[in-house]
Amino acid sequence: MNALIVWMMMGTYCGSNKPYIQDMTVTFRTQYYVKNNTVLDATVKLPLDKITCNNQLYNMTSDDEILLLGDCVEKNLKKHHVELNGIYYNKEDNDIIIKTNVGDMTLPFC
What we know:
The chain is mostly beta strands. The chain has helices at residues 3-9, 72-78; strands at residues 11-17, 21-30, 38-46, 49-60, 66-68, 84-90, 95-100, 103-108. Strands 1-2-3-4-5 form a five-stranded antiparallel beta sheet. The chain has a three-stranded antiparallel beta sheet with strand order 6-7-8.
């Protein structure tokens, strides 16, 4: 991972895609006791459920795609018939783009 991009991403991104996703936050942070010391926490508030996945390891590809190394987010979204097609970091606007089968969502830095 590019250290400069990882440093630029540190912090919380938030947004919503109403009516289905009432609120979503993704926080990138450093975890010093993990070998790959960058992790993310994701919280998704749906009308009848709340998904929380903390300490998710991730990798970033050369085209700024964020690859989750655990299945917490994907497994919980599938329960609600949502397929995760990709997560991308947009360094020009400093936001996160989440692509799913029910539509795309942009999370600005908040």
